[in-house]
Amino acid sequence: MTQPLLKVDDLSKSFGGLAVISEVSFEVPAGGRLALIGPNGAGKTTMFNLLTGVYRQDVGTVTLDGEVIDAYPSRARIGLGMARSFQNIRLMPHLSVVENVMLGQQSRARGWRDFVAPVSAFGRSAAYREAEDLLASMNIETRPGDVVATLPYGIRKKIEVVRALAAKPKLLLLDEPAAGLNAVETASLRDFLLQISETGVTLLVVEHDMSLVRSLCTSTVVLNFGRKIYDGPVSKVHEDPQVLEAYLGPRHAGEKEAAHV
Amino acid sequence: MSGYWIGLITILSINVIFAYGIFLAVATGQLNLGGAGFQALGAYAAAYLAMEMDQPLFVTIASGMIVAGVIGFAISFPILRLKGVYLVLGTFAFAEVVAGLILNSDALGGATGLPVPTFIDWDVPAIAAVIVAVGVFWLMSTRFGLVVRSVHDDEVVADLMGVNVRMVRVCAFALGAALAGLSGALYAHAYSFVEIQVFNASLSIYVLLYVLLGGAQTAWGPLFGAAFFTLLPEALRDTLPALKEAVFGALGIEGAATPPDESWRFVILGVATVLMMIFRPEGLITRTMVERLRPLNRAPRAARAEAAE
Amino acid sequence: MLLLQQIANGLMLGSVYVTVAVAFTLTISILNFLNFTIPTLFMLAGMVGWSLAFWGLPFGISGPLPWPLALAGGVVVAIVASLIVERFTFRYLKTRYGDSTEHAIPLVSSLGFLLILENLVRIEHGSDAQRFPGPSADLTLSLAGIHLRVPQVVSLAVVVLLVLGLVWMMKSSRIGRMLRAIAENPDAAGILGIETRRVVPVVFMLTGMLCGLAGALFAVNYGEVSPQMGEDIGSKAIAGMVVGGLGSLWGAVAGGVIIGLIEMMTIHWAGADTVQATVWGALLITLLIRPQGLFGHHAIGKGKL
Ligand SMILES: Nc1ncnc2c1ncn2[C@@H]1O[C@H](COP(=O)(O)OP(=O)(O)OP(=O)(O)O)[C@@H](O)[C@H]1O
Ligand SMILES: [Mg+2]
């Protein structure tokens, strides 16, 4: 019960001699909602890339649900229960919404039978219905023929989250889900994420919008220049002197956050 | 049916199958500029088995497909490691090496070519083309097709979603090679003769252009592209002389040697290519366009449920 | 002695390949663009040169021109054609739709131009090879028992000067520095105030000039031109570029010469029919074993534009 879902131990990564992540350790409890924050270039996206295997760490281990996952290739990690979204929306532009979500189911496809099973709207296949139901349960109403590129930004952000959900992950990694959204959309996104969290999915969220972090997450890890400078409850983060310094003092911190949106 | 139509249907069917062969590779984002090489493999395999071993039609055509497919599968492992321009050059070089080797093979007739005893009429290529077209449409509507299209759009994300990108590319490439081989085998039997000069670099270029101009996002693209550029010269048969005169008049050339019609067809293909790359680089038939033509898909979920009742 | 003679011939043959290979490698290294019109520009210069020397200017403006003037005309036409190609293949064809084949847009467009130019020449002059009324190709020079034809020696000298000039230009001149900045990073170059739109045509001018000169040298050396003459040279030049390494000028020089030698050796030992297999085989093996070639950079030609 006390075992964390995700455990990051002493992780380091450098690009051409430049240390981007240095000796970072933290844990995400099962069912928890943890925020990973820090100024621009702190290494948050790089951390996600290390967790999902896009890059290999130089040192350190990542443990998911009690299993060390370092040896798994990036392709296999989603099958272990870890799905992610991207900082810049990376939906497949030429696929429809439902098809994008069906791509999220890919890690659950087994054997050649699943590969030749029809997934089109005409066949009303199981995969298709499942994707459509998932979208509907998240209150996203789309037409099957909608190609992603034609949809509004806020909807696409949500669809990316739903695509990750389609893998039925235990841990959901979200890279700045609220970036580019207005206040109304952000509020709607928060409810959406809380709804996901209630189904038992653990959330690890990179976010610059501190009001969203406060209302969504319980604890937070702060990175600065690749080092962990804070690890604790969200409510105390603004009292930490190191964090305040990282964000250039309390008054400037507010401005900086605003600048990210 | 008259000889004219028989010839037309035969070449149309062969080109459609050939275009689908290249399409499968392009649909995963890999430009295969070695189409002629795979077609040549299929054609020569079929011709050799028919001529030297007296094999029946069924065997020769199947063998043409298998030989090209197996060689495509084997070569795809090293060749698909290449990216971008390197891949284009690699596939192109492969086709040239195949042609160069056949040219030097006495068993395959070298520069003189091989006669093919078993003749097929238009019906075999036509049936094969229909089967291939239906097959590719079906394939694109399966999870495999979904994965193929995702790899084309963003291979990093596809990989993170659990797609074995390399395997998908290899399968699509090898399957495409097999289809190109099939088109070659049909060619060999339909024309009763194979010579390596036919399977030249230009052929690889044309078939890739059919696919790219038709559109590589859906299975409609290659069908349309191949059909359009095969039938275009026929459609131009009457208007071409007038067009020629107009062009010559404009250029102020008088009494020039009567130009070969083939050349005009390729000039038009070239102009179409340049214009398409400027105005519609994703090809004539796009996903969005196909979706717009499906009325059912324009309705939201609830409305469709009602309509279904 | 026969072998030595073949090596000498290979070097001479290589010099034409080198010029075209340098044109290929220049466009690839600066613009990441495999320009398939290059062999066509080469052919265009030769055919236009022949046409001017045989028929004269169009519209009856003049009768047949003397051959040096005719070849100069061919080179000018190649440069103009290359600039037209730039206008339509490259200028407006940047990232329009985001996916993995978009880097191929200029390449595909250049395939279109290849078809247009080659077939227009066919329509105008037919497909037959034409005798070029140049200086006598039989003028020979004997050196230690090896016979060298004077036009070949002149070509070699011209090519060496051309390449040296280009290398100097890329290294030391202002335009060369701008081009290298664009090659490094087009966006950053734009921010630094380099007007890509003005500078990029220079690459195409150079391409047209190199191809035009190569076509002229070919016409003089072989005394024969045809609408097909680009295909063979183009493939040898591409092979030379790949063997030498994409994006490296000296690589293209070395590669062109190597291909010339491979060709002569193949003819010497195995016959002319085998050349296609050995030259393209060399290319394919290079790609599979060492894609960066002898001197190239692995990054070039890999990613998107
Ligand atoms: N592939 C790479 N090669 C070299 N440097 C890299 C690479 N990826 C990231 N970096 C560097 O690592 C640092 C951290 O980048 P990262 O994208 O992780 O920051 P971030 O915290 O996500 O910032 P932001 O808030 O702007 O998204 C940056 O300085 C970046 O330039
Ligand atoms: Mg980031």
TrEMBL record, chain A:
Annotated Gene Ontology cellular component terms: plasma membrane
UniProt protein name: Amino acid/amide ABC transporter ATP-binding protein 1, HAAT family
SMART domains from the UniProt entry: AAA (SM00382)
Organism: Albimonas pacifica
Record's keyword terms, sorted: ATP-binding, Nucleotide-binding, Transport
Pfam families: ABC_tran
Keyword Nucleotide-binding: yes
SUPFAM superfamilies: P-loop containing nucleoside triphosphate hydrolases
InterPro entries: AAA+_ATPase, ABC_AA/LPS_Transport, ABC_transporter-like_ATP-bd, P-loop_NTPase
Domain ABC transporter as annotated: residue spans: 6-250
PROSITE patterns to which the protein is assigned, alphabetical: ABC_TRANSPORTER_2
Gene Ontology molecular function: ATP binding; ATP hydrolysis activity
UniProtKB/TrEMBL annotation, chain B:
GO molecular function per UniProt: branched-chain amino acid transmembrane transporter activity
InterPro entries per the UniProt record, alphabetical: ABC_transp_permease (IPR001851), LivM-like (IPR043428)
Organism of origin: Albimonas pacifica
This protein's UniProt keywords: Cell membrane, Membrane, Transmembrane, Transmembrane helix
Membrane topology field: Multi-pass membrane protein
Gene Ontology CC terms, in alphabetical order: plasma membrane
Protein name: Amino acid/amide ABC transporter membrane protein 2, HAAT family
Lineage of source species: Bacteria, Pseudomonadati, Pseudomonadota, Alphaproteobacteria, Rhodobacterales
Transmembrane annotation, as ranges: 6-26, 33-51, 57-77, 84-104, 124-146, 167-190
Domain of life: Bacteria
Compartment list: Cell membrane
From TrEMBL, chain C:
Protein name: Branched-chain amino acid transport system permease protein
Keyword tags: Amino-acid transport, Cell inner membrane, Cell membrane, Membrane, Transmembrane, Transmembrane helix, Transport
The keyword Membrane is assigned to this record: yes
CDD domains, per database record: TM_PBP1_LivH_like
MF-aspect GO terms: L-isoleucine transmembrane transporter activity; L-leucine transmembrane transporter activity; L-phenylalanine transmembrane transporter activity; L-valine transmembrane transporter activity
UniProt family annotation: Belongs to the binding-protein-dependent transport system permease family. LivHM subfamily.
Positions of transmembrane segments: 12-34, 41-61, 67-85, 105-123, 150-170, 199-218, 238-262
Subcellular location: Cell membrane
UniProt key word Transport: yes
Lineage start: Bacteria, Pseudomonadati, Pseudomonadota, Alphaproteobacteria, Rhodobacterales
CC annotations in GO: plasma membrane
Membrane topology, record value: Multi-pass membrane protein
GO biological process, one term: L-alanine transport
InterPro entries for this protein: ABC_transp_permease, BCAA_transport_permease
Domain of life: Bacteria
